[in-house]
Amino acid sequence: MLRRLGNQVVPVEDPEHVERRREQVVAALSRSIRATADRKRRAFRTRLLWTAGLAASLVLGVGIAAQVRHTAVEAAAVFSTVAEVSGAVVVTENGQSRVLSNGSEFALRTQGEIETAPEAQAELRSQKSSVHLSPATKLTVPPVTPVEERYRLAVGRVELSVDKNSPLTRSVVVETPNAEVVVHGTVFAVGVSSRNKQTVTEVSVTRGSVWVLQRGSQVAVLGAGQHWSSDAEPTSVPPTVPSLAAPEPAAALAPSEAVSRRETATRGLPRPTAAETKASTLAEQSRMFQEAIDARNRGEDARSAELFGRLLQRYPNYEEAEVQLFRAQKRLGRTTAAAAEARRYLALHPQGFARDEARELALSSSPAQRR
Amino acid sequence: MQRAPTDEELIEAVQRGDHQVASVIYERLVGVVDHTLYRVFGRREVDHDDLVQAAFEQIVVTLSRRSYARACSLRTWASSIASHVGFNALRSRRRERRVLDREAGIEAEPIRAGVDVEGEASARAELERLRLQLSEMKSTHAEAVFLHDVLGHELAEIALMTQVSVSAAQSRLVRGRRELFKRLDYVAPRRKTEPS
Q1: What number of other Cβ atoms are within 10 A of residue A370's Cβ?
Q2: Whether the Cβ atoms of residue A123 and residue A83 lie closer than 8 Å to each other
Q3: Interface test with B, best of A36, A39, A41, A42 (most B CBs within 10 A)
Q4: Which residues of A touch B29 (CB under 8 A)?
Q5: In whole angstroms, how far apart are CA B171 and each of A71, A123, B84, B156?
Q6: Which of A2, A21, A27 lies nearest to residue B49, judging by beta carbons?
Q7: Minimal CA–CA distance to A255: which of A268, A267, A242, A245?
Q8: Spatial separation of the C-alpha atoms in residues A217 and A53, rounded to whole Å
Q9: Which residue among A6, A340, B89, B119 is least enclosed by CB atoms within 10 Å?
């Protein structure tokens, strides 16, 4: 039956009808071919537009992401901000100077130098401290490191407020041409001025305590309300200059003098005098101490402990080095050795500046305590 | 004398949007489209010209969409499209027939002189029943049976036209025949059906 269906004879149509249908179908076919081609072109254009839009969105997205990342990186790079400016303040960064007007801010990313005019003031804020710059002050701010936040005061006066509750453990140091003031949490002021053609550093403590170092050696520990000047002997607290076995006047010479004398000695003078020998010893002692302090500031406690140990072997009874040694050992977790050093320190310096800390350390490691 | 364009040239012209080739396409394919539609319906219906036009439009669409893989001739492809259009129309007609009698006014094919009138009428009734059953079957099965058993296409051609594998086309044919025989109350032959 299916075969019959296939073999069915198809009758011939009326030619007029065939012609009429031909015209009708050919016209419709022409329209259909044109419309299909138009649709294809439109679809292609739409696809092209979508692709271009998508590509543009992608580029825009990548650009925005890059911008956000760049902003985040830039924000992370900012370590200090100069704010609350009054008067003319010049900030120099990367060799480019910029004058800040009232109320404007400037973020420091690399080492910056801030100079206030005679009538101007500024505030510098970091994560740990805030520094108020008095008029006619010149302060250099190197980038902050994990162990240290340093300010170099060339001239003028700064008032620092260090947040002692800050989770950041780095030290805050104000360096003047002839002193270093190290703090951990306090409010104090440092001034540098010129007196009798000499640079004089003055330190006043409002709250807490600070150490004053000169060429790596601690010269004073100041408490609240106390004052220190590089121009005169401290009145409130005696400076704990490394107590040499037989101090002589020449031992108190400044290292610059010591160095110049040592240079003179190496130029072929037959024999150094006793004073020259003492000065040379002091310079060597200062150098060794500085090396150990630098190691501590870099966080290299083992190296620091080794250097302090070596310094004490060569120059025993050096109070500051003894303190630094038991602290380094404590940081390294060598509790027994730290306690032994603390006991030795207490025996040698019963009234030493770190006696409380040493006593606590010595007791914490005693057998009774351990039990 | 100008050479008639090849199938390939016609297809490329359609894809370019060159509407000048419309008459050439019509001339080349009208015979196969007309005959296929006639076999689907058993006559030329009142809307036969519309169906011819719909089949041609469908051919143009498939050519421009590149659905035609050029693996068979354009005529074979056109017969496949025409049968598809025809069966779709037949199916929708069966649904409509419940409301309208579309066959009213259509002249019955004249019975040739000298033939058995009763036998001819019975044969026509059988063919009409066959078309009815084909239109009510699953479209893929019905088309496979129609293309193979009525229009005489090879299984490989049907596979290319319907864009399925040869085994799938064979399966459709076997299932279609089985369903058709069941619908016509035929007893399936004992020997295994061997599609050509």
Answers
A1: 9
A2: yes
A3: A36
A4: none
A5: 66, 89, 18, 12
A6: A21
A7: A242
A8: 68
A9: B119
Residue reference for tokens 């050519």: B63
Give me the amino acid identity at A178: N
State which residue of chain A sits closest to B133, comparing Cα positions: A2
Q: What is the number of residues in chain B?
A: 196
**Measured CA angle at B184 (ends B182, B186), to 5 deg:** 65
B120 and A CB contact within 8 Å: no
pLDDT in tens, A237-289: 434 433 333 333 333 333 444 333 333 333 333 444 555 555 567 778 888 88
ipTM of the complex: 0.71
Residues A33, B21: C-beta atoms closer than 8 Å: yes
What is the crossing angle of helices B48-64 and B74-96, to 10°? Answer: 130
Number of other residues whose CB lies within 10 A of the CB of residue A203: 24
Show Cβ contacts of residue A55 under 8 Å, excluding neighbours closer than 6 positions: none
Give the C-alpha separation, A210 to A203, whole Å: 9
pLDDT digits (tens, 9 = 90+) for A190-236: 888 877 777 888 888 887 778 888 776 777 778 777 888 887 644 34
Torsion over CA: A246, A249, A255, A259 (sign):
negative
Nearest chain A Cα distance for residue B141, angstroms? 14
